[in-house]
Write a structure and sequence with these properties.
The complex is a heterodimer of chains A (296) and B (450). Chain A has 296 residues and is an alpha/beta fold. Chain A has 11 helices and 13 strands. Chain A has a domain of 158 residues: HUPs (Rossmann fold, 3-Layer(aba) Sandwich). In chain B, helix 9 runs antiparallel to helix 10. In chain B, 73% of the residues lie in helices and 3% in strands. Chain B is mainly alpha-helical and 450 residues long.
Chain lengths: 296, 450
Amino acid sequence: MAIEKILFPSRFRELAYESLETLFPLKNAGLKEVVFCHVISREDVGFVPYGGYLKEEANKLREEAVIRFADWQKSLSERGIGSKVIVNVGETVHEILKAAEAEKVDLLVIGRKKRVDGPATFIGSYAHKIITRSKFPTLVSKYMVQYNDQDATLTKINRAPFEMPLFAADWTERSGRVLDVIASLKGVIRKVFLFYNIDERTLEKSAESEIDLIRENIAEKLQDYCDRLKARGIEAEPHIGAGGMLDEMIRVSRERKASMIIVGNTSKDRLLSNILDRSLSYQVSKVSELPTLLVP
Amino acid sequence: MHADLGEILPLWSTLPFVGMLLSIALFPLFAPKFWHNHFGKTSAFWTLMAVVPFTILYKGQAVYEFLHIVLADYVPFVILLSALYTVSGNILFRGTLVGTPVVNTGILIIGTVLASWMGTTGAAMLLIRPFLRANSHRKNRTFMVVFFIFLVANVGGSLTPLGDPPLFLGFLRGVPFFWTFELLPQMIFVVFILLVMYFIIDSYFYRKEGIRAASENVDKEPLRIDGLHNLLFLAGIVGAVLMSGVLHWGEITILGVHRATVDVARDAMLIFMAVLSLLTTRKEIREDNEFTWYPMQEVAILFIGIFLTMMPCLKILQAGEKGELALLIRAVSEPFHYFWMTGLLSSFLDNAPTYLTFLSSLLGKFYPGVEAREAVVLLIEEHGIYLKAISAGAVFFGANTYIGNAPNFMVRSIAEETGTPMPSFFGFMIKYSIPVLIPVFALITFVFYW
């Protein structure tokens, strides 16, 4: 499955263009078109009490968006990537998902591009709502972020998110689909870190000899994934973690200097995320300083 | 003790109410962007202008009156509107309708019938998008939306207290639930004339546009209604309101204000129906319905201002000829006076406070000093035609302008957003309401009130 068409919603916040630039390398992996989407909140222009609709204001905001996108479209065109602009009035999340559906995109890129304003939570309410409902591969883009590592506050710029992704595998059919996505990014990816974590419960419940067996079994499966990727021309490296899944994934991603984390996003994940904010995909998106690609 | 207040209140105490209503009438027209961003502050300003001096001057009695109007009128009013809005927002018409004169007239009839049971706002929100979608291939759509506003957003709501906010306020003051069915002959009269006119105009444009074949090119999606189970909650709302008009469970005191226990139970049931509707309906249905809380927030913010600033005016009117507005009470004497006065003011001010103002003036005229609920019973028995006149005036004339009734502006907003050109404020009046509605109302006057 190649990423040929991307939906890039924008509210024209700081560093949005820089974030768009990080997608340019996908041209080498078959990217053909970027669909820009801007949603004018209905509450900004509609339902004026006893007045109706601010038609001129809506037209002005629409024109502004089109002009801003035109600049971005020019940059894409210079790189041989096509583009299209959608500006709608409505509810943001609904309109973005509607546009993704209508355009049949291969990737949806969301998230605030700059987050340097406080404790580490790299996902806003809109992004949260989208990842709980998106049926498309969704990249939570984090161009510039501030995060804490060993009591130090660091600033990170994610300029090349696709170069060295870490993929949290789980041997399901969905993992197979993620491998296909990774394989389609051959022209962009330099190396993939394949990660599997032995969780705390398994460690507590199992005897030492059993753990060795489990580890060997996992290593074998990871190696199989690595071989499958190598066969398609992508360098891959297996890593096994032990303990809390989230902490381990973040630890390995930092140690290996991964550029992105890729996780599956099941309907169960989406439900958990919606109700309890507990799904792994949501937690990774929220806590990791790296861009996160969620594959349904 | 409280009835006497109207006899001593000065005329200037009504100024914040006048300011509030003029703000609603003029700001959307002349400064819509300012109004959109600052209507809450404007409402707060007029509210403070009424509440602060009034409380300083009349202390405990003023506080009681303000609390009374909030707890007995405002809170039930907002709860009912919100419940109807929520439940109707969870029902979605899907499928392909092709806007022919017959189909359009059918939608208008359905909307008109539904309006009395799910509120003009609910019926309008339920049907306006399917109506616009059905006619997206038509060139001339403006007149369709205008007739939709006339029928579904206004006239259709005249049969029950659920239909239009003024009638619910009357119900809260003691008008029986089914009494408003007395307006049925007038409603049928207006609806019949408007539908015939609509059908003729639509048929003319349909032929002129010559696009009958377009319907065959459309990918047809079968008609269906999502969230149909919400009709149960709608029935629950009707039942709760009916219950509060029939049962008597004594009174309870909230913040020093006596309230009928059954009214409090009704409000709780309405909230429960709305919550059940939200919990049992998929979010996608609301989203596809473009449901947003914003219009309800606006109503809640504006109406707290309207109700609080209105209180001195109501008190003066209830005092009848002993109050400062004796001149008005003497001048307006015949039923058709009330029909037109309530109507004309409802055209330019919101019809809910206008209705309440004229109901109060009727009570002050015929039964000064008598407790409101008791006076309403007497009014219905002895001078029912007056109550019909103000009820019909408030509901029917709300269609005259965009500001006459809350759903008018919501329908206009949705129509413009989806690309249907709508006339300006004055364009609406000059092209549509004056030539179409005013002659119909003149006929009503001769047939029912002369």
